[in-house]
Amino acid sequence: MVFGLFCSSTPVKAADAHEFSFVSIDGEPLPLTQFRGKAILIVNTASQCGFTPQYEGLQTVWQRYRDRGLVVLGVPSDDFGGQEPGSNEKIKEFCEVNFNIDFPLSRKEHVVGERAHPFYRWAANELGVMAKPRWNFHKYLIDPEGRLVDWFSTVTPPTSERVLRAIEGHLPTSAS
Question: Which residue among 24, 47, 83, 84 is least enclosed by CB atoms within 10 Å?
Answer without folding.
Answer: 24
